[in-house]
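As a warm-up, study this chain.
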Amino acid sequence: HLTARAFHHTMALTTRVTFTIVSGEHRLRDARPCVIVGNHQSELDVLLLARIFPPWCSVTAKSSLRHTPFLGWFMALSGTVFIDRANATSARQAFAGAVEEMLTHRQSVFIFPEGTRSYAQGPEMGAFKKGAFHLAVQAQVDLVPVVAANYWGLLAPKEGRFRAGRIPVRVLEPVSTKGLGAGDVEGLAARVRESMLVALEELGETEMGRAVGK
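Now compare it with the structure written out below.
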């Protein structure tokens, strides 16, 4: 948590790009443990993670990385939640260890459900993979959606554009998974994605690419 904040402040000074939470920051702490999901735009999202990570939050990784020298050791020490997809015959089996770790240590996790960077040029998101939602349902913890305004006007690697700016972020209302099962995952993912798209459109951006909250 403290390391992430220090990284964000340092990079803000060097890049002059800042992510600013304009509403709902308390939800990241109050919902612990939870599964936090966010829209994934580009490599710059590492600054988003550095800004929003609450205490007792980590990312997920393949369990095979746990024993990788240096990287795996660092992940284990930093509280990474490992998911054993390779040896799993079902989503439930894959997330069993992660669920136990989350509940035992009250550890929240952050996941980009799009799975890959979108480089979207407007308020758009790719299709959601279901892993984050299976994990939340299996653990019976809240989902907390986080939406960063589209910042294509600030950063566009293919166009060689990099500008300074402030990118507003909203933390939306937690979505309960109490009583839901595997059969509810698809509908849950669709509802969360729709709420995030609405927020993404509302955040908007100016003609110069400096995203502003509304």
